[in-house]
Amino acid sequence: MSQPSVMVDGDHSTEFDSTPAVSVRHLSKSYGDLIAVDDVSFDVDSGTVVGLLGPNGAGKTTLIKSMLGLVVPTSGTVEIEGISVHDDPTAAYGHVGAMLEGARNVYWRLSVRENLEFFAGLAGHRPSEVRERHDRLLDQFGLAEKADVAVNDLSRGMKQKVALACTLSRDVSVAFLDEPTLGLDVESSMDLRRELRRLADHDSMTVVLSSHDMDVIEDVCDRVLIVNDGHLVADDTVRNLVDLFRTQRYRLTLDALPPDATRTRLAESYGVDDDEWTTTGEGVEFEATLADGAELHALLGVLLDAGCAVHGVTSLDSDLGDAFLELTDRASPAERGRER
Amino acid sequence: MRTTVLVSAIARKQLILLTRYPLNTASQLVGLYIFFALLFFGGQAIGGPAIGESLSGLIVGFFLFTMSVTAYAGLSWALTREAQWGTLEQLYMSPYGFGRVMAVTVGVNLLVSLAYGGFILASMLLTTGRTLTVDPLTIVPLVVLTLGSAIGVGFVFGGLALVYKRIENIFQLVQFGFILLIAAPVDAYPFLRVFPLAQGGNLLQRAMRDGVHLWEFAPTELFVLVATAVGYTVLGYLFFQRSSDKARRDGVLGHY
Questions:
Q1: Whether residue B218 has pLDDT greater than 90
Q2: Phi, psi of B9 (to 5 degrees)
Q3: Which residue from B minimizes the CA distance to A29?
Q4: What is the greatest pairwise CA distance in chain B?
Q5: Residues of A whose CB is below 8 A from B101
Q6: Among residues 28-87 of chain B, which lie with CB inside 8 Å of chain A?
Q7: Spatial distance between the Cα atoms of B123 and B136, rounded to a whole number of angstroms
Q8: What is the pTM of this model?
Q9: Which regions span the lipid bilayer (chain B) (predicted)?
């Protein structure tokens, strides 16, 4: 199957006039011979939620940590709100919050409110100055009743919420979230998704999040970056990525099995092997992956020329998971399992 | 940005961590006291009245040992724990800068060390009935400058922990090394004064046992004390900075 064309290399920078909230240019990181991130460039516009997807070991965490200056890149630049993270990190950190290790990002011996106050203090805010903000966060995350409870005594989902609340404990315009819903139950995950969307829509916050959960990415993200073997292999909206694959696989239902010659031609020209045919109550059906609409017309022509009655043609729905698998399928399996 | 806010945040956190589990903190202090009591009563049982001749030296030495280990461990162990807890990278991303955050942490740890030292000194004096000169105008500057070199060593091993991880066993060996440094015979071997804790230990002994005031020490002796304090702190901090840069290059800053 031909590969879809997806926007990469910061194509989105041309869509907006304003300075992007995050700008990554030719970012690379190698550990000896191992290339963890390879010449990655993209922009993230203010007030958008961008998802970072990739198989294990694809380089997502290295990419996020390089964007935050926690890993020194081999080459390339990263700017947050126009400030170089690597040249002027303290100025850049004034705009950014990060939740990198889920619930491990906070002090379990401190209470929820003490954590919020500590992390706000770490950015120069006195507790009295951020009290209202913290009360609001506690309400939004359903933590108000647990404000004075030590984090150690909370459930995993609540700990995760505390970590996110701490990321937002001060006024930041960009948030990096590494696997924010990992280990959450369905309800907590839904709460978190709503909150992330609200942050972008109402507070104009820019969010870059990595996740293995396709539902989270589909629900929350305006754009998706797919990373594989350190490369950016896709940079587009969820809808565009899904649409790219939706139009390419069809299920065709016929009244009866076509003649041998026709089946041979279908196998040779469209990859419909004998084991693709299944018998149903209406007749027989098969699935075919086609390059485009014109190829579908050609295939239908072959069937009609052979005198087959075509009862139905169904465009098979594709989701982000299918798109992800298609896009990351290019990497060799040996490359994929590497830890970074 | 206001450094007072950072100081307040870190001091508050340290205080909460110390007091939230009071039994844990108390057990550390009691452990130190028991260690001294074993030395004292054990020494009395074995050496009889002879222990009295070296008791003052033992008290001053143990007083300094308690504070130097607290100051050193407060830095090296704290960095390891922050990495374990997953909060080290959050500290690194402070808009104040990692260096400033660590400097304030050191300052707060120093106060904790002084508090521990004060407690253990009072306990030792009460237990032994010994009287020593405790002139704050002399003792505090001497102790703070002496701990400067312990902090420098803490920075070095904290930096090594960032890069190599899991070196807690070496931390403990270094603590034993402190005993040798505090007891170093600097009068017999003057070159030993350049080692961490050695000069400070010697001056503190003379101040507390013999009642020598700060201004009565020879300027060269004070110069060596200041030079070793500043030198080890600066060198330790530079080493720590280079270590954290290496940890970031290797991508292991927050690893444990």
A1: yes
A2: -65, -45
A3: B249
A4: 59
A5: 122
A6: 85-87
A7: 17
A8: 0.81
A9: 21-46, 58-80, 101-126, 138-163, 170-192, 222-240
